[in-house]
Structures are given as C-alpha cells and as structure tokens.
Amino acid sequence: MYYGEELGMRTTEPARKEDVQDPIGKIGWPEEKGRDGERTPMQWDASTNAGFQRLAAPVCPGRQRLHI
C-alpha cells in the first residue's frame, strides 16, 4: 500500500510541462511525466489547502470527500 492509497487518493499527472518539478519529468516529457503526481500532500481535511497553511505541491482532487 502506498501513501494515501488507503484513503482512495489518486495520482494526478501534470497536464503541462510547465507544472512539472521532478527532473525525470522535465527530461522525459511527455512520455515520462515524473513523480509529481505521487507527491501530493496528505489530505487532513476538506478545506482548500487540505489542512495546511501553505502548500509546496497541489492537493489531489477529491479532497472534499477523501480525507482523514
């Protein structure tokens, strides 16, 4: 089981190359989109930032119903 999988969190691949932060994704775009989709914050609640004051990565869609 992976981080967040028990909550039903999904991997969200970046839609644009400009959104990619992972070096592997930058080099291999568009075939390899990197690991950014797996690096979303754990969703603590249904708020806009999923319980965080500031975010370094976007929150996974579905935080309104998939959170701790």
List keywords for this structure.
single chain, 68 residues, elongated
Describe the protein's architecture and organization.
This protein is low in regular secondary structure and 68 residues long. Helix content is 9%, strand content 0%. The chain has one helix and no strands. It has one helix spanning 23-28. The protein is elongated and about 35 Å long. The two termini are 16 Å apart.
Strand content: under 5%
Number of strands: 0
Q: How much is the average pLDDT?
A: 87
Instruction: Kindly report how far apart the N and C termini lie.
Output: 16 Å
Series of H and E elements: H
How large, in whole angstroms, is the Cα Rg? Answer: 13 Å
Tally of helical segments:
1
Helix content: under 10%
Residue stretches low in confidence (pLDDT < 50, at least 5 long) are: none
Structural class: little secondary structure
Give the overall silhouette: elongated
| Major sheet | none
Topology:
Blueprint: H1 23-28
Brief sketch in words of this structure:
This protein has about 70 residues and is mostly loops. It contains 1 helix and no strands.
